[in-house]
Amino acid sequence: xxxxxxxxxxxxxxxxxxxxxxxxxxxxxxxxxxxxxxxxxxxxxxxxxxxxxxxxxxxxxxxxxxxxxxxxxxxxxxxxxxxxxxxxxxxxxxxxxxxxxxxxxxxxxxxxxxxxxxxxxxxxxxxxxxxxx
Length: 133
Description:
With about 130 residues, the protein is α+β, with helices and mostly antiparallel strands. It has two helices and ten strands; from the N terminus they run ααββββββββββ.
């Protein structure tokens, strides 16, 4: 009698595990909102830096999450009037007019007008959405 109870218990547990796996496997349908399909070009455009030349006097403002690396030229920060642009390399917030160091990684935390101003012609590397004026 005990042996039958153990066998029955093992069968019930096995069926429950199979049911749980089936529910989990069905939860992410390819191409759905939970598991969207994306193209290689889309991933490449979001995952790689792009070289951009700025002329003296131009400003570049970034969207939320935009990353900027100054490669050459003289650039200063542009804040939003209350908070600066994040200099990840130095661990500081740069306020308007503060010099941006060459090869420093900057992060734009929100799309609210933060970015950089080109004092001279120069090159930057950028990843994310941005606007040049």
